[in-house]
């Protein structure tokens, strides 16, 4: 179940955070501030060093070696982003003095930066989720390869889904890695990596949940189930990255894939006699409650902690519980296989 919700939340977190038109960036005062900052290179007493370069990154009448360093481009601390940040902070101070509530700018709440971390709390919690998935995957690896019995001749595991869960673990760690990077440095490249990684994880989760719920063991049957889903997800990612980044269409795709898994895991948990089904139900309801944090969006407290950051925090214990269920499933299926061979 968490395969569904973790992936779906990543998609939703991306979608809800990237809508360009917001109240803040439509504000004439904010827009004028950014325009003047880009032109003049300063906001009051704050001097924006990156605005000493023209938009193409090279100083006027200078040679190629005067271009903005690559590490600065990577951090995306360029003129426009710096002006947007300082103008946003200045405008929010003015709004606060007038007794007005914070508003979103370019689809995001006004977060206070810490060094290069644009959303430090969300980035930290994403990193913790990455760590939890690594610990969960590593403990699963040790369990199936070193603690549980192996087949005498091939030395392969009795658990039929070992390889599938290894791939899931790697895709999960990749998705949370780019989530942490995206919350640290929000620009076009990190946006695409975060987005593509989340959709890839969600698509693979559809395949994995289908194979596990319907107990598909034959390799040919697995290919038959996986091929059309893999082709669709690949085409979808290519479409959004290289043709049109249609957020509305992508949300529909994520919802369909997410709820398909939700139904499969829910029905399976209801009819199976799996010894760890209570863990599965706990993850189900925990994820459902965590979803409310994405729905009930609120401004960041003290400029650091918002609903999305709290959601990232809530998934940390759920990740631990989910990998615990996976390990219990490995023990359960291994025991069943050994009993069948006796």
In short:
It is built from twelve helices and two strands. With 342 residues, the protein is mainly α.
Question: What does the secondary structure layout of this molecule look like, with pairings?
Answer:
Blueprint: H1 2-16, H2 23-26, H3 28-40, E1 42-43, E2 46-47, H4 70-75, H5 79-97, H6 120-147, H7 162-184, H8 188-213, H9 219-242, H10 247-271, H11 277-295, H12 307-341
Helix pairs in contact: 1-8, 1-10, 1-11, 1-12, 3-5, 6-7, 6-12, 7-8, 8-9, 8-10, 11-12
* Order of H and E elements: HHHEEHHHHHHHHH
Sheet of most strands:
2 strands, antiparallel
Task: Provide the domain count.
Answer: 2
Alpha carbon gyration radius = 24 Å
CATH topology (level 3) name of the largest domain: Rhopdopsin 7-helix transmembrane proteins
Give the overall average pLDDT: 84
CATH class of the largest domain: Mainly Alpha
Which ranges are low-confidence, i.e. pLDDT below 50, for 5 or more consecutive residues? 54-62
Number of strands: 2
CATH architecture of the largest domain: Up-down Bundle
Q: What is the count of DSSP helices, taking H or I runs of 4+ residues?
A: 12
> Beta fraction of the residues?
under 5%
Helix content: 55-70%
Shape: elongated
Pfam families: Per1
GO cellular component, one term: endoplasmic reticulum membrane
GO biological process, one term: GPI anchor biosynthetic process
Function: Involved in the lipid remodeling steps of GPI-anchor maturation.
